[in-house]
Target: Sulfotransferase
Amino acid sequence: NENEFDDQQKVVVLSQLPKTKGFLGLSSLSLYQGFWCPSKIVPNVISFQTHFQAHDQDIILASKPKSGTTWLKALVFSIVNRARYTPSNTPLLISNPHQLVPFLEFTLFADHAIHKNSAAVKVPDLSGIPSPRLFSTHIPYPSLPESVKNSKCRIVYICRNPLDVIVSSWHFGTQDRTRSQWTNMEEYVDKFWKGEAAFGPFWDHVLSYWRESLEKPEKVLFLRYEDMKEDTVAQVKRIAEFVGFRFSDEEESGGVVRQISEMCSLKSLKDLEVNKTGKFMPNFENKSYFRKGGVGDWVNHLSASLAKRIISKVNEEKLKGSGLTF
Ligand code: A3P
Model:
């Protein structure tokens, strides 16, 4: 396939990209198009960028890791498929949300073909997926494929307080101590501080989607994890309206929104057998996606002075004048 070889040419050049220590400590991060991409994922990102054809009805969920991606996937899947499934027969009972809403760069554009000792990515056939197709990505807005930007497909972005993102990432990255190279949280925070976090810098990631949501509110819905925790029902209604699946008055009075919110709560999902034992990728156990799910857990891990320093750097230096603050 000619396409694969084109991609491969680019991959060869990519071995020259600047590198830093990785998210899980195992794989490095490479600075690609201004963001720190897990090095092994760079070929997938290139293939996604080159070959993905968005449809107008597609819904793409975007986030920086550990911002509430799994939760958002469960909610959007439930909203869009509520005519087919109820909480008693939803596929969420037997599948992790990441299986129902696959990552474009980690899962779909991840099948490597070996050619001349290096890897090229096979282009997947996504044409048979029923509409609306639900996908997800961690890459920042500027690096999305042109067809995503130029079609009418919708993007739902979720962000979270950076202190909680740091703490959640730390737990995710160190839970398997046999695989993790991270032993020192200060070093981890320092990397975040320099912007060297997976798909970071954090501030560039959130700003890219924030700006787009202001410029094209019909294209990008910008959500905050904290708002979702505070009033899940209100945010679920907002998401449903945005993706074109508004709840009817009957549904609202019949408790459908509340049922979906409860079904997708951390406790419900975490207690399911599939999320206690399964894996959705070889190195990623389903249970690692469900921890405390709170707001402000950083107080248990970061000193008040360090937290203040991080937040003021983010707000006063990086997000200044954008209208977005944490
Ligand atoms: P904590 O580590 O702070 O508990 P992501 O899905 O982007 O990888 O983010 C994972 C974070 O979201 C984890 O945060 C996890 O506990 C939390 N989370 C997962 N499912 C959730 C849900 N249904 N409701 C609220 N938070 C959830």
